[in-house]
Amino acid sequence: MRTDTLDVFRGASYEVAETIAPTWERRRADIEDVATPVRQWMLEELAAQEGDTVLELAAGTGDTGFEAAALVGASGRLISTDFSPSMLETARRRGAELGVENVTYRVMDAERIELEDDSVDAVLCRFGYMLMADPAAALAETRRVLRPSGRLTLAVWSAPDRNPYFGVIATSLIRHGHVPPPDPGAPGIFSMASPERITTLLAGAGFSEVRTEDVLGSFALPSIDEYLAVVADTAGPLGLAVRGLSDDDRAAVKTDVETSFVPFRSERGYNLPAVALCAVAS
What we know:
Blueprint: H1 3-26, H2 28-46, E1 53-56, H3 63-72, E2 77-82, H4 85-98, E3 103-107, E4 120-126, H5 135-145, E5 146-157, H6 164-175, H7 195-204, E6 210-221, H8 224-234, H9 236-243, H10 247-260, E7 265-266, E8 269-281
Parallel strand pairs: 1-2, 1-4, 2-3, 4-5
Antiparallel strand pairs: 5-8, 6-8, 7-8
Helix pairs in contact: 1-4, 1-9, 2-3, 6-10, 8-9
């Protein structure tokens, strides 16, 4: 992909993150509830030890990193980073709320990590690499700053048909012309949605031992209206597209969603399956 195209993606991603940070923070508890199985898998596989230095990339509200901070103890350190200053401020507020003291907050682009070679023991990145303009560059930077024995754990979303929460709204918005079809190779929710893609990127970045695993979860939602509200608050470009719908367009999208979600009806509304692809690499 051309450099100027990558720069366009980077700029767009930055604007989306800055715009959505306030509602992302407001929905933090909902996001973390869904992400609990992924967060637990990543921390277990990371196996951070007392005294380790842990780097979290694309930290968002920072909850995965804060649990790692507890594992490394007072003699260890968490470096919580995001390329969006507004997102990083949400992490800072969350860290203060939790009373986390062994943490440093830094605005940092994962494609250009401003740390020395071999300077951290472990890296976490939950649902971040898939949204980066150049994930290969970000993973190479990750490998560079990791010590030789260091370990990375990451999570991305699996394919659209395994994740109706994202797949259904994306299909509807594309069908009605509210967002363009994704460009092959462009960053996005499903840009790393296969074990082969993840393994290839990690190997190309210099990781020699890679293991991927499906981690299952679910989205529990009381109604279609609440689903659309959560999507608008949290789902990046898809969310911003939903925010911009006219009443008529929103009604058309809502009809699509209602039809597609029939198989997922539950006593309390809807229960949508979710599948994350997680990887551990060293």
